[in-house]
Write a structure and sequence with these properties.
The protein is an all-alpha fold. The protein has helices at residues 8-27, 31-45, 50-65, 72-88, 92-108, 112-128, 132-148, 154-167, 171-179. The protein starts with 7 loop residues before the first helix and ends with a helix.
Length: 180
């Protein structure tokens, strides 16, 4: 959903789609449906209206929290989603808090994919905070899991690691991860 400022037609099309989803959300009575719609609306808004993304991600978190005993990974997913909006707004403490909760839930449920995702996103928040050594620590944990499980996200982990080593002027490590 990345929208360029110059592509007005694409933006209007996405806004129409969002309006349709909002209407569906207003009519939905089932929490599962509300959760999925809130999740997609929040995700779509991340690229051009972070306040709107935060609003719908918050609804996703609140709804999924009420069901966390039955669907813990849904709640973990919601926390990971809202972390993006928090980090984009510069609310790094809130982003990390949400991500460490998501990480805990993923680990408790032996979910390798969500565990790696939480580590990666924690690393990305530290990257935004310019704490490159912490960022490397968490992205390396994500890479270890992704490489072991043959997850395609390992490529993203390597790109992040290359960028972080570049920021630290550790060229050999930057090149190592960039070329893998």
């Amino acid at each position: 959903f990345a929208i360029s400022q110059s592509n007005t037609g694409e933006r209007q099309s996405i806004i129409r789609s969002l309006d349709s989803l909002k209407q569906q959300l207003a009519l939905a009575t089932d929490d599962s449906v509300k959760i999925q719609i809130s999740k997609w609306i929040g995700f779509a808004y991340e690229s051009f209206s972070i306040d709107s993304a935060l609003k719908y991600d918050s609804a996703f978190v609140l709804l999924s929290r009420t069901r966390q005993n039955k669907y813990p990974l849904e709640y973990s997913n919601a926390l990971a989603s809202i972390s993006t909006a928090y980090a984009t707004k510069g609310k790094f403490v809130e982003a990390l808090d949400a991500l460490f909760k998501a990480l805990s839930i993923a680990k408790e449920n032996n979910d390798a994919w969500n565990t790696a995702r939480a580590y990666r996103r924690i690393g990305f928040v530290y990257l935004q905070m310019e704490n490159y050594r912490k960022a490397i620590q968490f992205c390396d944990l994500a890479l270890q899991i992704d490489a072991t499980t043959n997850n395609s996200s390992a490529a993203i982990d390597r790109i992040f690691l290359a960028k972080m080593y570049e920021k630290l002027n550790i060229s050999d490590s930057a090149v190592y991860y960039a070329e893998k």
